[in-house]
């Protein structure tokens, strides 16, 4: 049994080391005096100074985060509706059809999505910029939210809903008090996945952005032609550390709250 | 449910706070009411100090947007939806955009500094009489290599690459026109040759190069070559400058069979809302001192004859990047191919890649 | 009653499907019938069945299959072990966190890590395995793709494992089932939904991976996604690009049909 423990700890350790290896590699070279990822010649903070003096870059980062948060929020709402719709659809064929349609955006290569959204937005007369990027990000994040929420719904036993309804609960009450709490982990997972998709996307954003609005990945890609400057590494390091800090603070603060609640006999976190 | 509500409110509060930050950041760099000039350029392809200088001097607010390929930029311009005042396409793209009526003519009276451009680089096939474009930077396609890794052997021609001792040593750039062009050149055909028989011959010849090819890559060759991943790279001179900056062991050569010469050019796209500002900007960038400053920042060769005087000796006397007229006469500008011809080149390149 | 339920939820969702799925889909289908000169024809479909594109399709499917398989192989035990951890929600977030760093930068880091004279290469050389080409091979391509997809597989599996009723597992043990039998007959079938959504979230995008084929595989691997990318952005042959996309969408429908029929459930 002990042996097994060690084995599984080692396995997890390996997974985490591999996951973080490239990130630490990037972070390491962000302090490189030589300004490249080839030879480390000396320690410097120059690249960080460059980041802070580049107002355009910082504005782009802020805009990227705004789009990511807003689009994930809205696509989560839409995705939960979608999952409920699919879950409640009776016919097997309709269900499969909806699911297939849901997944099309996930299989479609980014360029096609980008190009077709561009045509769509120009047809609808939506000005390219913040709104068009936001709409596009919502659009391509919805399917992943659906895929995250749907399994949760399917695990829910139908008797649960029936029981609630037998007790005279209204439709909205059943939804808010029974269904939603049950699928909350799925909703969170969907939100984080949507955030991930949004932060990562380049091709779709490229096509639908305009009028001075830009996101970080579009900027990074178009800088690649000149070779990536270590200030981009420095920026990524900063973003990574800030996110890590937020995750840690968030986690430990909510855990603290959960403990208090548990002691006072409230619902567990 | 409570947790979800907290999350929702937290996200909204953060978004609101960030919007304020964003508004402040973009607001602080500009004066209210200033007319804007929207520039659409490759990323990191201009000295930001020059933009600030231009803003100060002319009172415009400059919006700078970036693209990563000519074709992606074209799609954007074709669709409309956003208006750009100035774009920087490469040569063949200039003629393509002109033919599709996507460019506005430049009023040469408003750009007196045009006289600073070396006459070698004016009146070229892609834009006769420079009605629509002004050269921004220029360069060649060639071979960068590390003599130390090759035991001191010298490369002077395309055909040298087929030498058996360079097994698994070559990085090719992932671009159909350049690689098929290299094949054509190596057989002493023009880079613009579209003869079917010649192209077939080229494919056969390229396939023979396969054992020597390590990979077909893009911009990452600037990371790979300095760290000695491979000894030889076929690429654009602009990339070569950066590679040699990082690792002085490497050197660049324009192959003797001939090669391509390329230009990135400033042009005004259809739908520009500030044509006057765009022309002022072009003129500003053609000022010898500004052009020299930009060339030093970007590292590419400037077509501005007057600006070269302000460049450090080491740069301006480097024949590899500022080749003389004798050498440039051997080089060809790409013709703008029709779509089917372009497709044939790409299919050929795809077939070559599939077999590598 | 139930019918009303469905209708209300369907409205926003169907609106989204109509605007952002059906409309682009119709456009892709429409473009696929035009050749490069803008004439209506079936030429693109005929072209797809030439050796070049067939070979590409087969190799894409093969690679996507390997990538999904290895991702599952790593993700399932990871998700399982995570559910037994103390601060498991935190660890899960730490799994997702690396995906927030730009993919191009991570790919560049991998070029540095896996390249000749890079740390991995040096390690291999020191361990006596000798220097060998790691970068620009099919296996490095699979490795980096698995790296990118792991979080997308772990999340759904973790979700279904977490809700797994531990009393089932205990009951199985009480009935004298071995650990393997418990896993095979109780745990795995009960988490199948999660595995399915995970596989879908990996296999389908893996078919259309494009940037890694150049960055990590040096174009030794060419997927359908790469070809689409090129047709849209380089050749400007939107017709052929759309035709390949049509086949990708068909492939996806087939995968989903297979999953839906429960071919995994046989055991």
From TrEMBL, chain A:
PROSITE patterns: ABC_TM1. The keyword Protein transport does not apply. Residues 61-250 form the ABC transmembrane type-1 domain. It is found in: Cell membrane. Its main location: membrane. Keywords: Cell membrane, Membrane, Transmembrane, Transmembrane helix, Transport. The chain crosses the membrane at residues 9-31, 57-88, 100-124, 130-153, 174-196, 234-253. The keyword Transmembrane applies. It is a multi-pass membrane protein. InterPro entries: Bact_Polyamine_Transport, MetI-like, MetI-like_sf. Belongs to the binding-protein-dependent transport system permease family. CysTW subfamily. This is ABC transporter permease. It comes from Sporolactobacillus shoreicorticis.
UniProtKB/TrEMBL annotation, chain B:
Gene3D superfamilies: Periplasmic binding protein-like II. The keyword Signal applies. The keyword Ribonucleoprotein does not apply. Its main location: periplasm. Keywords: Periplasm, Signal, Transport. It is found in: Periplasm. This is PotD/PotF family extracellular solute-binding protein. The lineage of its organism: Bacteria, Bacillati, Bacillota, Bacilli, Bacillales.
Automatic annotation (TrEMBL), chain C:
Residues 57-259 form the ABC transmembrane type-1 domain. It is found in: Cell membrane. Pfam families: BPD_transp_1. The chain crosses the membrane at residues 12-33, 53-78, 90-114, 134-158, 201-218, 238-259. The keyword Transmembrane helix applies. It is a multi-pass membrane protein. Keywords: Cell membrane, Membrane, Transmembrane, Transmembrane helix, Transport. Belongs to the binding-protein-dependent transport system permease family. CysTW subfamily. PANTHER family: INNER MEMBRANE ABC TRANSPORTER PERMEASE PROTEIN YDCU-RELATED (PTHR42929:SF1), INNER MEMBRANE ABC TRANSPORTER PERMEASE PROTEIN YDCU-RELATED-RELATED (PTHR42929). This is ABC transporter permease. It comes from Sporolactobacillus shoreicorticis.
């Amino acid at each position: 049994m002990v042996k097994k423990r060690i084995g599984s700890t080692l396995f997890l350790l390996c997974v985490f080391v591999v996951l973080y290896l490239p990130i630490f590699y990037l972070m390491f070279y962000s302090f490189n005096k030589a300004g490249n990822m080839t030879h480390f010649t000396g320690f410097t903070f120059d690249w960080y100074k460059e980041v802070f003096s580049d107002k355009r870059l910082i504005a782009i980062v802020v805009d990227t985060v705004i789009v990511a948060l807003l689009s994930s929020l809205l696509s989560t709402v839409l995705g939960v509706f979608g999952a409920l719709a699919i879950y409640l659809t009776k016919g097997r064929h309709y269900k499969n059809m909806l699911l297939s349609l849901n997944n099309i955006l996930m299989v479609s290569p980014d360029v096609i999505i980008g190009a077709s959204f561009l045509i769509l937005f120009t047809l609808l007369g939506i000005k390219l910029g913040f709104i068009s990027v936001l709409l596009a990000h919502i659009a391509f994040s919805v399917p992943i939210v659906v895929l995250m929420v749907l399994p949760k719904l399917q695990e829910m036993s139908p008797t649960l809903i029936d029981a609630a309804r037998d007790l005279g609960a209204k439709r909205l009450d059943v939804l808010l008090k029974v269904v939603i709490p049950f699928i909350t982990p799925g909703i969170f997972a969907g939100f984080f996945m949507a955030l991930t998709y949004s932060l990562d996307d380049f091709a779709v954003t490229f096509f639908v952005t305009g009028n001075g609005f830009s996101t970080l990945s579009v900027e990074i890609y178009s800088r690649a032609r000149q070779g990536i400057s270590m200030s981009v590494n420095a920026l990524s390091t900063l973003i990574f550390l800030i996110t890590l800090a937020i995750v840690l603070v968030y986690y430990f603060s909510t855990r603290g709250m959960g403990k208090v609640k548990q002691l006072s006999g409230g619902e567990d976190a | 449910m409570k947790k979800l509500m907290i999350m929702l409110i937290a996200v909204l509060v953060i978004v609101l706070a960030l919007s304020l930050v964003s508004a402040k950041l973009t607001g602080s760099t500009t004066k209210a009411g200033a007319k804007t000039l929207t520039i659409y350029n490759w990323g990191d392809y201009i000295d930001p100090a020059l933009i600030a200088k231009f803003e100060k001097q002319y009172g415009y607010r400059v919006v700078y947007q970036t693209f990563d390929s000519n074709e992606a930029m074209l799609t954007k311009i074709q669709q409309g939806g956003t208006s750009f005042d100035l774009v920087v396409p490469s040569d063949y793209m200039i003629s393509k955009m002109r033919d599709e009526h996507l460019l506005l003519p430049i009023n040469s009276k408003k750009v007196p500094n045009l006289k600073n451009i070396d006459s070698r680089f004016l009146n070229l096939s892609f834009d006769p009489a420079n009605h629509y474009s002004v050269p921004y930077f220029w360069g060649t396609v060639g071979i960068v290599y590390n003599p130390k890794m090759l035991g001191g052997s010298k490369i002077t021609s395309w055909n040298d690459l087929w030498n058996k001792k360079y097994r698994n040593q070559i990085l090719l750039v992932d671009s159909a026109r350049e690689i098929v062009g290299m094949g054509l050149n190596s057989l002493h055909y023009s880079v613009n040759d579209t003869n079917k028989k010649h192209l077939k011959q080229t494919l056969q010849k390229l396939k023979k190069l396969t054992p020597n090819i390590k990979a077909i890559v893009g911009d990452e060759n600037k990371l790979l070559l300095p760290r000695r991943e491979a000894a030889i790279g076929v690429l654009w001179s602009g990339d070569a400058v950066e590679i040699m900056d990082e690792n002085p062991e490497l050197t660049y050569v324009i192959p003797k069979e001939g090669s391509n010469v390329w230009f990135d050019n400033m042009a005004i796209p259809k739908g520009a809302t500030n044509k006057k500002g765009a022309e002022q900007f072009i003129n500003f960038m053609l000022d010898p001192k500004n052009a020299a400053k930009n060339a030093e920042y970007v590292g590419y060769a400037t077509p501005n004859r007057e600006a070269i005087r302000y460049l450090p000796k080491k740069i301006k006397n480097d024949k590899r990047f500022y080749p003389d007229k004798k050498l440039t006469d051997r080089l060809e500008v790409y013709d703008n191919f029709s779509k089917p011809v372009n497709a044939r080149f790409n299919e050929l390149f795809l077939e070559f890649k599939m077999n590598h | 009653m139930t019918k009303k339920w469905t209708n209300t939820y369907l409205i926003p969702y169907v609106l989204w499907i109509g605007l952002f799925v059906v409309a682009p889909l119709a456009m892709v289908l429409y473009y696929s019938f035009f050749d490069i000169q803008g004439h209506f024809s079936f030429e693109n479909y005929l072209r797809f069945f030439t050796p070049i594109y067939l070979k590409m399709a087969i190799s894409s499917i093969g690679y996507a299959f390997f990538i999904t398989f290895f991702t599952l192989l790593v993700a399932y035990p990871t998700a399982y072990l995570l559910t037994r951890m103390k601060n498991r929600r935190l660890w899960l977030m730490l799994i997702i966190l690396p995906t927030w760093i730009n993919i191009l930068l991570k790919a560049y880091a991998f070029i540095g890590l896996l390249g000749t004279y890079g740390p991995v290469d040096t390690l291999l050389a020191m361990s006596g395995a000798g220097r060998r080409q790691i970068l620009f091979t099919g296996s490095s391509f699979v490795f980096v793709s698995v790296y990118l997809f792991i979080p997308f597989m772990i999340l759904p599996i973790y979700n279904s494992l977490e809700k797994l009723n531990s009393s089932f597992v205990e009951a199985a043990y009480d009935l004298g089932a071995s650990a393997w039998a418990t896993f095979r007959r109780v745990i795995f079938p009960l988490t199948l939904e999660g595995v399915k959504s995970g596989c879908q979230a990996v296999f389908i995008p893996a078919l259309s991976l494009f940037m890694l084929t150049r960055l990590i595989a040096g174009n030794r691997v060419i997927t359908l996604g790469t070809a689409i990318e090129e047709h849209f952005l380089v050749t400007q042959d939107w017709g052929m690009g759309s035709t390949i996309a049509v086949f990708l969408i068909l492939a996806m429908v087939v995968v989903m049909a297979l999953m839906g029929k429960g071919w995994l459930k046989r055991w």
